[in-house]
Amino acid sequence: MKNIYILLLFLVGNLVVAQQSKSNDTTTNTIEEVFVTANKTETKKAEMPVAIHKLSKKTIEETKATSMYELVNKVPGAIMVNLGNEQHSMAIRQPMTTNSYFLYLEDGLPIRPLGIFNHNALLEINQFNLQNIEVVKGPTSSIYGPDAIGGSINLISVNPNLHPSFKIGLQADQFGYRNIAASGSSTFGKFGVHIAGLYADQKDSWMTYSDYKKANINAKLVYQFNNKTKLIGTIFNGNYYSDMFGTVNEKAFLDRNYTSQTDFTYRKSEALRTKLTFEKDWNSTSKTSITTYFRDNKLGQNPAYGIKWATGQTTAKGEINSNNFKSYGALIQQIQNINIIKTEAVAGFLYDYSPITYFSNQINLKANLDAGGQTVSNYENLGENGVKLADYDSEVKNVAAYIQTKTKLNHDLILTFGMRHDIMDLSYNNYINNSNGNQKYESTTFKGGLNFIINKNVGYYINYSEGFTPPGVTSIFRLKPGTGGNTGIPADFYYNLKPALFRNYEIGGYANLITNKLTIDYAFYLLNGKNELLNIRQADNSFDYQSAGQTRHKGVEFSLNYYHSKQFQFRIGGTAAQHTFVKFDVSAKPTDALKNLDGFEMPSAPKWSGNSEITYRPNWFPNFRIAVECQYVSSFFQNQVNTVKYEGYTIFNSRLGYKWKNIEVFTNVLNTTDKLYAYNVTRANAANAKATYTVAAPRTFMFGFQYCFDLKK
């Protein structure tokens, strides 16, 4: 009832605005942002039947984020969970999860190939290289393919300047974090170049065993043959190493005992991505682009999340793994305007070939217990025990074709239709049981939507879209708990995992309620999942994977922006959502008390979340800004059987800065009130299971300096 009431309120408000606007033809439109993510071509927001949000270059520059979560959390309906040292999970139309239901793109091309999702992919990003960020909420598989389920985040890189420019910045906090970032750009005749670099280093932070280093460099080269033809080349190289301090138990959390349970876990990454795109405008109605690309990623880790320990035991298990892949691919796309039927069509063909090698070796750990013997003080690494949890190589071939059309049925009604067919062909050699074979996943996904443009201030849309994602390769070849090794039971794997399928039903709209001052966006959605991959946490904190259930995700997302004047701006956005197991069988064993999760709420799924911010730029103090931001996350269940909740949190961040000529100084105060809170809290389903806390940082003062040079001709 509450959602229906909100919808009626929005609709009535929009109709009032529509009637007022009809009598005032001079009204200025502030809704007409241009996006590229939803349709793969520049499209006005009013003509897209999706919930989409853009973080502008100004927002990126003023936020001065050291980690991507500081930016993404400004998007209504998004929670990017900070796992420390730029590691992260995500929640967009999903609970907070590491599952492969989010697509991360650079300039429209996925950062990872199909089947090799990494929930930490955004730690590779350099904010100095971003022009803007576009976030589409809901499935976009009909144009971008698998993994585009809960949301798609497109990171759009900076283009070369027409004239020489240079920027350098330094940032530091009181907990040992430092970074230096620089970028330079110019155009020389027909040739333009933009280069951005970042080096970050953290030592002796608030949490023990949490040092990390990151070094990135990005380059974009553009050669403009003429005003209709150009060649664009990009290259990224990044290196990352982090101690992985993991979670803490409840007592350590409440005592603010920021001591890691490990001093041996780590994550290290080397990434190289290159892309070359040829673009040709044949005429005003036809445009072709051909992109070839190459990826080379090496990821090695001794993950804190891989530790398996049962309550009261003095021993535990861990793992060391390595996941390496290369990708060779091509994407051909044609944009064609068919004026006679007022239609724009986008069609494309993708081929991606990605060979992979992976191994995971088990290690023995000693668990030193706290007083009482119910929680762990710290673990000691005793070395590998000879058990292989995974050992395989594989080749993933992804072939896809898509088409999307946008037709203006009349001046205020636009029809969008899209479809895509994906084939994932996986051949493998599994060295644990000396087997080889082939797995094939195939799907056709559709999208259809209508935009109703009431006038230039008010519009609605309805949308149906589908999403598809196959199981991740690392999940398929994971040794099932209790098999292989020294168990005496033959090794068993997850060959029977099914692709997850989603159907999304959505209605939304926008309105310019007070001309150039007050705007709103909203979307109501129902996202039904089938074969959604579920990680069932076992008593020893290991996971059993299943994809045999039905889930339902429903909610409302909204944003409101109020521009009182050039001095005062206010925004608020968020979501009210519910994530539920509809039918989910977790065990067929007669001895197991838990047979299914039908009707239970999904864990780590807050019903309410929001982010608001007020910004003040005083006339009496030019070039000064101050902003106060509030992040709210409501309570959520810690386990799948809904017996224990975490209370959630409300925190405040403040940011201020001052520019003098080419110099800017700034200060960000994160967690301004020094609140004790955790980004996520999880536990197994057993009655005696203990909670693990992903603890958030205490109050952090980030100081920075930036120098910009811009020589206009």
From TrEMBL:
<dbReference type="Pfam" id="PF07715">
    <property type="entry name" value="Plug"/>
</dbReference>
<dbReference type="GO" id="GO:0015344">
    <property type="term" value="F:siderophore uptake transmembrane transporter activity"/>
</dbReference>
<keyword id="KW-0406">Ion transport</keyword>
<feature type="domain" description="TonB-dependent receptor-like beta-barrel">
    <location>
        <begin position="226"/>
        <end position="671"/>
    </location>
</feature>
<keyword id="KW-0813">Transport</keyword>
<keyword id="KW-0472">Membrane</keyword>
<dbReference type="InterPro" id="IPR039426">
    <property type="entry name" value="TonB-dep_rcpt-like"/>
</dbReference>
<protein>
    <submittedName>
        <fullName>Outer membrane receptor proteins, mostly Fe transport</fullName>
    </submittedName>
</protein>
<keyword id="KW-0998">Cell outer membrane</keyword>
<dbReference type="InterPro" id="IPR037066">
    <property type="entry name" value="Plug_dom_sf"/>
</dbReference>
<feature type="signal peptide">
    <location>
        <begin position="1"/>
        <end position="18"/>
    </location>
</feature>
<comment type="similarity">
    <text>Belongs to the TonB-dependent receptor family.</text>
</comment>
<keyword id="KW-0732">Signal</keyword>
<keyword id="KW-1134">Transmembrane beta strand</keyword>
<keyword id="KW-0798">TonB box</keyword>
<dbReference type="InterPro" id="IPR000531">
    <property type="entry name" value="Beta-barrel_TonB"/>
</dbReference>
<keyword id="KW-0812">Transmembrane</keyword>
<keyword id="KW-0408">Iron</keyword>
<dbReference type="InterPro" id="IPR036942">
    <property type="entry name" value="Beta-barrel_TonB_sf"/>
</dbReference>
<dbReference type="Pfam" id="PF00593">
    <property type="entry name" value="TonB_dep_Rec_b-barrel"/>
</dbReference>
<dbReference type="InterPro" id="IPR012910">
    <property type="entry name" value="Plug_dom"/>
</dbReference>
<keyword id="KW-0675">Receptor</keyword>
<dbReference type="GO" id="GO:0009279">
    <property type="term" value="C:cell outer membrane"/>
</dbReference>
<feature type="domain" description="TonB-dependent receptor plug">
    <location>
        <begin position="45"/>
        <end position="151"/>
    </location>
</feature>
<keyword id="KW-0410">Iron transport</keyword>
